[in-house]
Design a protein that fits this description.
The complex is a heterotrimer of chains A (201), B (319) and C (629). Helices cover 74% and strands 1% of the residues of chain A. Chain A is built from six helices and one strand; from the N terminus they run E-H-H-H-H-H-H. The chains are: A mainly alpha (201), B alpha+beta (319), C mainly alpha (629).
């Protein structure tokens, strides 16, 4: 028998970044949701191209809350990055702190987002412009809410008594990666909702 | 001439498409035959094997030059044929766009499940409306404007041209021309609901003088009732439910939700080609349209026999 | 059989065990059986349609029921059979072919199955309750909008899309992660079986195409439920927006179905020609370029709209071009057979049918790719013929071949060759009798989606012939069911590799044990089980050092499959099932009220959290084995 045994018992039990299986699952999710965002932006442009004026019959959305959200999201990049780094170093007290800070940022963002919805100056059922603006904002909000929930669950896990596998650190690192997606995806959506209507009028 | 048949063109648009069809079919048939012959040869000449036959791994060591040549040649040939067909398609597109300026403009609005046909004219007093049947002069380009009132429909008269969709909120146009006199049947070609299957239309291509005569007659308002029975029929129509949806020019009935009946008796079919326009069918249609076209918007009209006779007499006189 | 490994990797038994099962082979088989069930159900609907159309002005089925039938037939065939069955084949076979102990994310995989099942049942129950969708499988607006389809029919359709797309997307992620990260050491991308390449390419397409239809159907539900105006031209919406979104998904979708068919061809033909396939790199490039090109064709479904002519021409060129990669594969298979030693048993017969049926369908595809020709042929029975020739010739025939081929691996027994041949010929002849006449009906002016036609159109005889063909097809499917049922109990026992094939799924028992491979293989060649002549057949070299009492599997690197780390895989769990039930309640509720999304999210969140939450006992067990990087 032609035999060569490959002994893998010395290999680690987890790895960070693109070596981990979870990273690929997350990238798949980001591909899907990124496509959905891109298509919704395409829908916005398409409906705009069919219209004689845009917005159809409303003032552009108020800048205040959306821009505040933009700033808070950008500000959240640093604690997010920090949480990712400390998770890769395995510093559990720092991870706990990082997760709590990220969760707090998220809760603030959700509160501001709620205010954003009230100052869009259009309703989803007035016309197609209102419908697409609410859809875009609604899509991003869904991602925001689910990521904040994830972060809270992870934080609870790290505060709960009992031992934790090293793999949970990969979960925290991946969660931070997803947060980047929530932040960066807001930029084009913010531009489309808030800046474009002002450029056209 | 075979009705509604793509391969029985009666005008230049359909002819250009038919020409492309034959070129394409011949090329595709040759390619199909070639593939099958290659397959048959492979099946015939290859020796047989079974799971116990050791796999032939010689191709892992040596490149298979003759196979490479054959595959590359076949792909190159197919690519060339595809380019040819693409160019032929583009050339046909251009030919389809080369019909001259239209002699006539007709606006068709698609409804569930009938066709509103309005003949346009620079002089508004010369416009007129009919339904489900249209006449065009032979040998002249006709511009058909396409609008939809409710859902998407598609205007398609295969003997004359390809189809075009009628889309609510968007207007489209199609040009066609009939070179031979005759009657050409068309049918809605975009699923539009429960009676999509029975939304046909007839296009009559008439020699120009005949067309002018027809158009002149259509421009006139409805013929006056010629008998008391017809007079009563008109009264039933105008004062009853009919006038809520149908129009008859020259009476007070001018609703546009259903076909214009001004010259109804000159049409060959009713209910958008569902049944021939005879007294019997008309009676059945008026009393219970759902027995002919279940699901249509027209309600049943239980009339007593005398009223029905009067109405039939009146409608039968609307030439 | 290694009893310790078996104990470690086996799903639990009993009712609870059935709900908690996560073995990819179990989930894969469930997909196959369920998809086949929907195939038969949708086929019965088609048989009813054909009975109605057998005679002109027939009164067997009225327009309202007919419209529900053809809508459900198309919807079920595309969303509940064709795509899921291919995903099921991937879920079962890909881990085995890449030499892995498990599929990636096994619990998510199980969850995706339950969502698919519940979505499919939802559609058929609606049909039985007379609220089946009736606006066509493509559900164009404004017909499917709030004004012209009152009630819940269109919402049932749109929400079923949500179910099946979620399921499909999850299955795609699972396949990609498995192929990239769980391959046996030494299985570089250049050594990946073509089946795996095809399933990988399909999974990527799914990621980028399915969001379009999810977005479109969500916008439709919003228009119907909360009065948005995406598709309402009176308020700035657009009917064509639906078509763009739907077909941006819809065209790639047919390739989700066709490319796995190509996968089967590239697996069966080499085995039954007793040689490695000719042109492996060309085939990989063809599969990849088909996937990319397929995203650039969608407007060819919209040639009859008023889109500018120049734009349409681009899509004609692209639609013609996509024939080239398929042609490359066909010629490579022919070359393989030309210099092979042919075994013409049932799996190969079904593969040979492809050369007739798919090629004919592809050629009619070239015809409708041309704008002028399409303007005549669009929405006629010619297109019905075309689509069935390509889907059935390109996917269903190879699928039946694949079932005969892999049945012994799944069940441990071979199907009957005799019944297989009967089924094949009945299906081949019946299919052509049913669908060939439709080309002529289309040329004679018969539109699609009509519940009846006038007697004087002359379409009666060909329609009757087509119905007879449909009966033959039904008989052939029945034969297949009989063959499968009898073979499962009493078929000839199959060894590990009854066909003498070269890929890794044949290097383990039939059916495989729960752990797939006692010692995962190390791969040194493209067809690992075929060694050069003159040397005795040798097992590939093996991996040792994975735990036996814990579910450990090997993760390798993406390009070269070098060992990376040892990952512990999860135990069976009830939470995928429970989460699927909670999510189903949310989806169904949300066609009645938007608040269902808010309230329904709570039980879903709870179920998913409990799913994720690590168990203390398991954590301790894993910590004992843990090595930090």
């Amino acid at each position: 028998m032609n035999h060569r045994s490959l002994d893998v018992s010395a290999l680690p039990s987890y790895k960070f970044g693109h070596a981990s299986l979870m990273w690929w699952g997350l990238m798949g999710l980001i591909a899907i949701e990124g496509t959905a965002f891109a298509l919704s932006v395409a829908m916005y442009f398409y409906l705009w191209s069919q219209a004689s004026q845009w917005p159809l019959a409303a003032a552009a959305p108020d800048l205040r809350w959306g821009t505040l959200n933009l700033l808070v999201l950008l500000a959240s990049i640093y604690p997010n990055h920090w949480t990712k780094r400390v998770s890769e170093h395995g510093n559990e007290p720092a991870m706990r702190l990082g997760l709590v800070i990220s969760a707090l940022f998220g809760i603030v963002l959700i509160a501001v987002r709620a205010l954003e919805f009230t100052t869009l100056n259009c309703r989803w059922d007035t016309d197609a412009y209102g419908s697409i603006v609410w859809l875009l904002l609604g899509l991003h909000t869904t991602h925001l809410v689910t990521d904040v929930y994830d972060t809270i669950v992870l934080a609870a896990l790290f505060f709960a008594p009992g031992p934790l596998e090293g793999r949970r650190r990969v979960d925290v690192s991946e969660n931070s990666l997803y947060w980047y997606f929530v932040v960066w995806s807001w930029l084009p959506i913010y531009a489309v909702i808030y800046l474009l209507p002002r450029l056209t009028s | 001439m075979r009705a509604q048949d793509i391969l029985a063109p009666a005008g230049p648009q359909a002819q250009h498409i038919e020409a492309l069809w034959w070129v394409t079919v011949v090329i595709c048939a040759v390619v199909f035959a070639a593939v099958l012959v290659a397959l048959a040869l492979a099946l015939i000449r290859s020796p047989r094997g079974n799971p116990a036959t050791p796999p032939d791994l010689s191709s892992l060591a040596r490149p298979e030059r003759s196979a490479a040549f054959a595959v590359v040649a076949a792909v190159a040939l197919c690519s060339a044929l595809l380019v040819f067909l693409t160019v032929a398609s583009f050339a046909t597109d251009r030919r389809l766009a080369s019909l001259g300026p239209p002699a006539l403009e007709i606006e068709i609005t698609g409804h569930r499940w009938w066709w509103e046909v309005r003949y346009q004219d620079a002089d508004p007093s010369r416009t007129f409306t009919t339904a489900n049947e249209m006449h065009i002069p032979v040998g002249k380009p006709v511009l058909v404007k396409l609008k939809a009132d409710d859902v998407i429909h598609s205007f398609w008269v295969p003997n004359l041209s390809g189809k075009k969709d009628l889309i609510p909120g968007r207007d489209a146009t199609l040009t066609l021309q009939a070179d031979k006199p005759g009657v050409y049947r068309g049918q809605c070609a975009e699923f539009c609901g429960v009676q999509h299957a029975k939304m046909a239309l007839l296009v009559f291509a008439d020699p120009p003088e005949q067309y002018q005569a027809w158009a002149a007659a259509e421009r006139k308002p409805a013929l006056q009732p010629a008998s008391e029975e017809q007079e009563r029929g008109r009264e039933i129509f105008v004062n009853g439910r009919c006038a809520m949806c149908h129009a008859i020019q020259g009476t007070s009935a001018n609703a546009r939700k259903a076909p214009d009946l001004t010259h109804f008796a000159s049409r060959e079919t009713l209910a958008a080609g569902a049944v021939p326009n005879t007294i019997g069918h008309l009676a059945g249609w008026i009393l219970d349209p759902h027995s002919i076209k279940p699901g249509v918007n027209m309600p049943g009209n239980p009339l007593d026999p005398d009223d029905l006779q009067a109405l039939l007499a009146y409608l039968g006189g609307l030439r | 059989m290694n009893p310790v490994l078996d104990q470690t990797w086996r799903d639990a038994r009993g009712f609870f065990g059935t709900l908690a099962a996560i073995d990819h082979k179990t989930i894969g088989k469930r997909y196959l059986v369920t998809a086949f069930g929907f195939f038969v159900a949708a086929g019965i609907l088609a048989a009813l349609m054909r009975l109605q159309l057998a005679r002109p002005e027939n009164t067997l089925i009225g327009p309202d029921l007919y419209n529900q039938l053809f809508t459900t037939h198309g919807t079920a065939m595309m969303f509940l059979f064709a795509v899921p069955v291919m995903q099921g084949m991937a879920i079962y076979l890909v881990p085995l072919m890449v030499g892995a102990r498990s599929i990636a994310f096994p619990r998510m995989n199980a969850f995706a199955y339950w969502i698919y099942l519940f979505g499919g049942l939802f559609l058929f129950i609606a049909l039985l309750l007379d609220i089946g969708p009736d606006a066509g499988w493509f559900s164009y607006v404004p017909l499917a909008g709030p004004q012209y389809t009152p009630g819940k029919r269109a919402d049932v359709w749109a929400q079923m899309i949500t179910f099946t797309e979620l399921s499909g997307l999850i299955a795609a992620i699972v396949v990609i992660a498995t192929v990239f990260k769980l391959r046996a050491p030494g299985m570089t991308l250049a050594r990946l079986p073509l089946f795996v390449w095809a399933m990988l390419v399909t999974a990527f397409m799914i990621l980028f195409a399915m969001p379009a239809v999810m977005l479109a159907s969500t916008a439709l539900i919003l228009d119907r439920l909360v009065s948005t105006h995406f598709y309402n031209p009176a308020e700035g919406g657009d009917a064509l927006l639906w078509q763009h979104l739907f077909w941006f998904f819809g065209h790639p979708e047919v390739y989700f179905i066709f490319i796995p068919g190509l996968a089967f061809m590239s697996s069966i033909i080499p085995t039954f020609s007793r040689r490695p396939i000719y042109g492996y790199p060309a085939i990989v490039l063809s599969l990849t370029s088909t996937a990319f090109l397929s995203f650039g064709l969608w407007v060819h479904h919209m040639f009859a709209t008023h889109i500018p002519e120049l734009g349409k021409s681009f899509f004609t060129a692209a639609s013609m071009m996509i024939a080239i990669p398929t042609a490359i594969q066909i010629f490579c298979w022919l070359a393989t057979m030309w210099s092979g030693r042919l075994d013409l048993r049932t799996p190969m017969l079904f593969s040979l049918a492809f050369f007739f049926i798919l090629v004919l369908g592809g050629l009619t595809g070239i015809m409708v790719a041309s704008v002028p020709l399409d303007l005549q042929l669009h929405d006629t029975y010619f297109v019905v013929a075309h689509l069935h020739y390509v889907l059935i010739g390109g996917a269903v025939f190879p699928l039946f071949g694949a079932w005969y081929y892999w049945f012994p691996k799944l069940t441990g027994r071979l199907m009957s060759e005799r019944l297989g041949r009967w089924q094949f010929w009945l299906f081949f002849i019946g299919f052509n009798v049913a669908f060939y006449p439709m080309h002529h009906l289309g040329l004679q002016g018969m539109p699609r989606r009509v519940y009846t036609y006038a007697d004087d159109m002359g379409w009666g005889p060909l329609n009757l012939l087509s119905t007879l063909g449909a009966v033959m097809i039904a008989a052939s499917v029945l034969l297949f069911i009989v063959n499968a049922a009898r073979s499962r109990r009493g078929g000839m026992l199959a060894a590990e590799n009854p066909w003498g094939a070269g890929t890794l799924e044949w290097a383990t028992a039939s059916p495989p044990p729960a752990y797939n491979f006692e010692r995962p293989p190390v791969v040194r060649a493209r067809d690992p089980l075929w060694e050069p002549i003159g040397e005795p057949p040798a097992e590939p070299a093996q991996v040792v050092g994975l735990a036996e009492r814990t579910r450990e599997a090997l993760v390798t690197t993406v390009l070269d499959a070098m060992p990376s780390h040892r990952l512990v895989f999860p135990q069976p769990s009830i939470w995928p099932f429970v989460s699927a039930v909670m999510l189903t309640a949310l989806f169904i509720g949300s066609i009645f009220t938007p608040w269902a999304v808010v309230w329904g999210a709570v039980p879903v969140a709870i179920a998913v959290t409990l799913w994720f939450w690590p168990k203390r006992g398991e954590t301790l067990e894993h910590l004992a084995l843990e090595k930090r990087p």
